Amino acid sequence: MVASLFVVGGARSGKSRYAVARSPAEGRIAFVATAEALDEDMARRIARHRAERPPHWTTIEVPLELVARLEKLEGTCDAFVVDCLTLWVANRLLRGDRDDAILDEANALARLIGRRRSSFTVVSNEVGEGVHPETAAGLRFRDLLGGVNQRVAAACDTVVLMVAGIPLTIKTPRAGS
């Protein structure tokens, strides 16, 4: 069985570092980045994350059409690390996509993970435990990301919640799976 891992947690909780550390040491690994360097801070963050990854990994930038690109890459990689769903959802919202279209894409991602042709590690933020958003756009984003996270977490074998750099395993593979 090919394993899948969903890593979720707050900002700066160690999600990306954990996801990279838990990925296979060898093989054809694709790091699928959803971030875009639209400002200096994000450019620095992207550079830091890139430096933390093994040099033999391939980086693929996919800010919007995540599932279509992963389906094209299926069979060419042993493992995918998708970092992160939070920015992917934000990018889709900023483009003007409807909530149902984003949730349909999350369902398609869950099905892709469930096919078990490649190992998947998927990173996302947990935004439902923080401050209640003051704006309608903030509430929409929180609720939509929560729905996306639920779909992907359900498809993954293992779910880890990162808290202050500490991984808390909240779902493990069922016996006989």
How helical, in percent, are the residues? 40-55%
Q: What is the total tally of β strands?
A: 7
Q: Which structural class fits the helix and strand makeup?
A: alpha/beta
**SS strand fraction:** 15-25%
Count of structural domains: 1
Count of DSSP helices?
6
Rounded to an integer in angstroms, the radius of gyration calculated over CA atoms is: 15 Å
Tell me what you see in this structure:
The protein is an alpha/beta fold and 177 residues long. It has helices at 15-22, 40-52, 66-73, 85-95, 99-114, 136-155; strands at residues 4-9, 29-33, 58-61, 79-83, 119-125, 158-163, 166-171. It has one domain: P-loop containing nucleotide triphosphate hydrolases (Rossmann fold), CATH 3.40.50. A seven-stranded mixed sheet has the order 3-2-4-5-1-6-7, with helices on both faces. Helix 3 packs parallel to helix 5. The longest helix has 20 residues, at 136-155. It is globular and about 45 Å long.
